[in-house]
Amino acid sequence: MTAIARLREIGRRHRVLVAGAGAVATAGVLCVVLAGRRHEFETAVSSAPWWILSATVALHVITLLARTEAWHLSVEAAGGQVARRVLFRASSMQVLGSLLSGQLGAAARIVALRRSSRDVCPQVPTLIAAEVPILSVEVALAALSSFTLVGPLGLPWWSPLVAAAVIAAGGAGLRRLALCTGRELWRGLAVVRSLRGGGRVVGWVLLAVFCQIFRNWLLLHAVGVDASFFDAIAVLIAVVTLGQLPVGPAVGAAAAVLILGGDGVAAAAAAGVLMTVTGTTGALAFAVWAALDRLWARVRTAGARPAEGTAGPW
Description:
The protein is mainly α and 314 residues long. The protein contains 16 helices and no strands. Helix 5 crosses helix 16. The longest helix has 47 residues, at 265-311.
């Protein structure tokens, strides 16, 4: 077994441990970068008005709801008959795992849905594939916007053209796979077969992405970073990309420093920290709603049983 294969095996067996170690390491690097800039960092964080923080929390909640509705459409097209409220409650489990890594979040959502609605939801391979249309739209948008990374990261001018070509080829391949019906895995791509269904998924994903971009732009300006919408897009792409690594809650600060650190490391890190804080607050609000809704559903079910029992003799 090669060294790379061994590392992959360790990562699969100890996902939580690896994610935790990565989060600690990333936080340590950021502390080194911010050494000597503590006052600037604290000033930038405290300069964000409360109403902007509240607005960004609301924008993140809208992002979660929009992306979950896109997932609902994809699961429904794949043959799932899960009620929307039940699926939204299962989706809320993603927020806990996503605090460490995106992969853990997606896995937690699928496990929660299978446990709550095993009889009416598709098999696990189908649910995994149902994520692909959503991810494909997000990747396509990132590729189309990759020109925003040319300046901050010093990429070649032709790299966005290559990314767009790769995404176009991938989209054609995805469409071809969606027409296959022989395996459970391909059923998850069923939403792509319909122009109406695929268009609705794209619409919800666009809403989620634009809410994230606007949220980043608000927070960057709130801490004193003179960022454009293109800068906010670049930060979002960096967040999503770094989120695939075991970076943990420090992903926002790491992405902001990577893209905009040249204009002020302390302010960029402050914006990234606020992205994480407001995002976590919005995600926890979604999770709390799901827990209360699940509890209310159980109370209604328990209250209906005695009523049915007492009405029987009459």
